[in-house]
Specification:
71 residues, 3-stranded mixed sheet, 3 strands
Length: 71
Amino acid sequence: GKSIQVEIADSVDPLHVQDWPTIDVCESEVRQILYNLIGNAFDASSHNGKVRVRFSTTESSQLSIEVQDFG
């Protein structure tokens, strides 16, 4: 069946949340955006497809979230 892989890059330490970049956003809107991106990728993948969600930080300390589907 389909699977979802969540990857946290070396640049993001989940144990040190206080070191994560601060962002000023509406939590419900971000939740809906992620839900839509992951749902669309999951729907677009094949029966044995995989969806990867990757969290990382950029050189300018911005949070990057990537959603990618694999067939």
